[in-house]
Write a structure and sequence with these properties.
By secondary structure, this protein is α/β, with parallel strands linked by helices. It has two domains: 31-190 and 209-217, Rossmann fold; 225-323, Helicase, Ruva Protein, domain 3 (Orthogonal Bundle). The protein has 14 helices and eleven strands. The strands form four sheets. The protein has a five-stranded parallel sheet. Strands 3-4 form a two-stranded antiparallel ribbon. A two-stranded antiparallel sheet has the order 6-7. Helix 1 packs antiparallel against helix 9 (211-223).
């Protein structure tokens, strides 16, 4: 199938994307970039970490996405006293049969909202790690597979650090994206005021697509063409985070560690999904540039010098993109 035929097929089978966006727009004002990132996460089977100050509709957006899909959804509020069993489930003893039987936890759903994930201790974060990466959960001596459509959407608050547990690098690397959620524009905030300043605001969406459609779309995403030149471009960008002196000698003292190969894989998958959302059967370099910040910002470890000079990962990524030739 050539790219033109694939593009036509994508346009035919991606009508649900616009339906989901329209349904979510009935509840969520603005945040179009955030909605796109969540849809890319769905299409690539990748988890998404959302970071922003309270009140920016992070939880509402995830709730709206779950409502627009005819899928099982669980919201888990992470707290310092949360236990792995509260997340995964546990074995319950039945005195009548003298046997233990499993009681599966809330993680056995399609969409999981891990609200304020950095408030949970390390043992809970480690339990979530296996589920995110291996798509399975071990309870006792038995392993249980998670659903085919399984997505963790986690939120964290960047300004309230009291009583929080910073996510380790290994856990951060499991997320496809780290999306920074920003304040709405004055125009959007006026719409929010008119829509939400009531005792009974509309916060529910209705299902407009079946999860089977999403799984079918994933097959099309895998078929999207990506030229060797674009593949090399992605590799050069990721390579630039590890050997930054080859990009700009001034970057060398600012980076402790660059992106892992998972960054290369995720940037490629995300670019394909972006092409799908745009109705194309092929990836263009702009897809890569648009998604590079969200894919890489949590995969670059800054040095103490960079933190002292208040140089962000975004600044480093922008420099790498500027200095990397576009095919």
């Amino acid at each position: 199938m050539d790219t033109n035929q694939l593009g036509e097929k994508i346009q035919q089978q991606s009508t649900w994307v616009q339906a989901v966006k329209q349904e979510m727009a009935r509840v969520v004002v603005g945040q179009s970039e955030l909605v796109d990132r969540l849809l890319i996460g769905l299409l690539t089977n990748g988890h998404v970490l959302l970071e922003g100050v309270p009140g920016l509709a992070k939880t509402l957006t995830v709730n709206s996405l779950a409502g627009a899909l005819s899928a099982e959804f669980q919201r888990i509020q992470f707290t310092p006293d949360l236990l792995p069993a509260d997340l995964l489930g546990t074995l319950i003893f039945n005195p009548q049969t003298n046997e233990f039987s499993p009681k599966l936890g809330p993680i056995f759903s399609n969409l999981i909202l891990a609200d304020e994930i950095n408030r949970a201790p390390a043992k809970v974060q480690s339990a979530l790690l296996e589920a995110m990466q291996e798509r399975q959960v071990t309870i006792g001596d038995k392993t249980y597979r998670l659903p085919d459509l399984f997505l963790v959407l986690a939120t964290q608050n960047p300004i309230d650090q009291e009583g929080t547990y910073q996510l380790p690098e290994a856990q951060m690397d499991r997320f496809l994206f780290k999306v920074m959620v920003d304040y709405p524009t004055p125009e959007e905030e006026r719409v929010i005021l008119d829509r939400m300043a009531t005792s009974a605001p509309k916060t529910k969406t209705t299902p407009v697509v079946d999860p089977a459609k999403v799984l079918e779309a994933r097959e099309l995403v895998n078929m999207i063409y990506i030229d060797d030149g674009v593949k090399d471009y992605i590799v050069r960008i990721i390579h630039g985070t590890r050997f930054s002196e080859q990009v700009d000698p001034a970057l060398k003292p600012l980076i402790r560690a660059g992106s892992s190969p998972r960054g290369t894989i995720n940037l490629t998958l995300a670019a394909k999904a972006a092409a799908f959302l745009d109705g194309r059967g092929y990836v263009v370099p702009q897809d890569v540039k648009d998604l590079a910040f969200d894919v890489m910002r949590h995969r670059i470890l800054l040095s103490y010098e960079a933190e002292a000079e208040e140089i962000s990962a975004e600044t480093i990524i922008a420099t790498i993109l500027d200095r990397t030739p576009v095919p």
